[in-house]
Amino acid sequence: MNPQTPLTIGAVAKRVGVAIDTIRYYEREGLLPEPTRRPSGYRSYGEGTVARLRFIRRAKNLGFTLEEIRDLLALSADRTRGVKAVKQRAQQRLADIEARIAELERVRGGLAELVDACPGHGAPEACPILRALGGEEQP
Predict the structure, then answer these.
(1) pLDDT digits over 34-81, tens only?
(2) Helix (H/G/I), strand (E/B), else coil: 36
(3) DSSP secondary structure letters along 121-134
(4) What pTM does this model have?
(5) pLDDT tens column, 67-116
(6) Are the beta carbons of 70 and 76 closer than 8 angstroms?
């Protein structure tokens, strides 16, 4: 495809793998610039929009919030401090993910103990899982 050929919103959505409503939402949120309009009123996009959407999608997959993505997009154009600031944001995101993983591992361990302790039959009041969920202390 010619990089100068304007794209419809549907073509952009298909190339990036997002819904058309997602593109409109990102436009409203200021993550994408307002597209030019054809004489028919339809939106017209270029390859820059495709690249920016891919950036947004990949950043979301790495756990960045839309506000953080907005910052990353702004920093990507900052020639003097951009890379350093991007690295700092990524380090913070990594620390947040590691903290969530530690919490999930703690929850997994507790749940595994409850599952192992539960015989899977008998009276509900004897079930360690139900007792734990009900707030009673385990023996």
Answers:
(1) 898 888 888 899 999 999 999 999 999 998 999 999 999 888 877 777
(2) strand
(3) -S-GGG-HHHHHHT
(4) 0.71
(5) 999 999 888 877 777 788 889 989 999 999 999 999 999 999 999 999 99
(6) no
Distance between CA atoms of residues 31 and 20, nearest Å = 14
Contact of 77 with 107, CB cutoff 8 Å:
no
The two tokens of residue 43 are 């939106």
Tally of residues, the chain: 139
Q: Where do the H-state alpha helices sit in the chain?
A: 9-16, 20-28, 47-61, 66-76, 82-117, 128-133
CA distance 33 to 35: 6
Measured torsion, CA atoms of residues 22, 26, 27, 33, in degrees rounded to the nearest 10? -120
From the CA atom positions of the chain, what is the Rg in Å?
24
